[in-house]
Amino acid sequence: MEKKNLDLAIQLRHELHAHPELSNQEVWTKQHVIEFLKANTNFEIVDRGRWFYAIYHSPVGKRNIAFRADFDALPIEETIELPYGSQFPGVSHKCGHDGHTATLAGFALEIEQTGSDNNIFFLFQHAEETGDGAAECAVFIKENNIDEIFAWHNMSGFPHGVVYVKDGTALCASKGMTISMEGIPSHASEPEKGINPSFAIAKIIEAIPELIDPSANKGLVLCTIVQVDIGAKAFGVNASKGSISMTIRALYEEELDRLQQNLEDLARSEAEKFGLKVRFEYQDEFPETANDKESSDKIRQVCQEKGLPMAELEEAFRGSEDFGHYTKLTKGSYCFIGNGETYPHLHSYEYDFKDDLIETAVEVFKGLAEK
């Protein structure tokens, strides 16, 4: 990677880090990256509101290859001292999306100079953290006849600079599920005159271990209770409203769907038994991220050709990524590059993206651009 391009990419990363914006609020971030690309490339810019993409139109135009970066931040306070630290209290780039975006922008500078036999699309996406960014941007695939799409994520706990690849599911599907129940209030001394949802919610909680039993599923299935809220601290009132919020997660979407259906069926059954109203809410929905073997093989080939250290990811990450919305529509692969085995974990106060990974990721992307 050209030193000038790397320096510009690192500078951009620091500017993005200082101005973090939460999911679906990335107004300054998007415009700043657009201005960066306009100042340093001649690419076509297609502004789609909360997201955008740039296009390198090849004089050869053999294939349409896309590369994606996310640019939203997290509601986490910046507590470490950085010369480019977050200027916004309670918001910071603690997942490295500033680095992902700087990588894609740096890659754009390289393609501007070297060109490619393929048409290259640079997709800059909002709202990855909430799972709805890629769901909105997925129209990009068919609208541009994208043949293949790639992306990467920095990953702590793995050797520094090593590229990790996996065929098939690399990240689990997940969603936030809330079951709300409503009965009838009564005086605490006369509970028989009311309908309390506590017992129905307790039955749901009690059933969870059986629903996620490994022997009943072909892959990992999890149901993590994040909140239970029943009634109020009023000792004269029999509770009449309650809810349970869970993160449901599975290696395979079909098993996530089955877990959701089982929980809904159980909740409806218990609601009917006790005479309760029941409703369901969902948010932060992520598909499984499934890599195409042919696309993953190209990452392996690039690493071998460029002498980049590479390893096979032995099992899928439990975490989720919305990149799976794209690979439902075209071939693609999502790889990982290690931050270091003892480096602070993502979404922690101590974390900051490692700038030297930009060059590694750009070199991978440059190799893929010619495949």
UniProtKB/TrEMBL annotation:
Pfam families attached to this UniProt entry: M20_dimer (PF07687), Peptidase_M20 (PF01546)
InterPro entries the UniProt entry points to: Amidohydrolase, Bact_exopeptidase_dim_dom, Peptidase_M20, Peptidase_M20_dimer
Annotated ranges, domain Peptidase M20 dimerisation: 174-273
The protein's name: Amidohydrolase
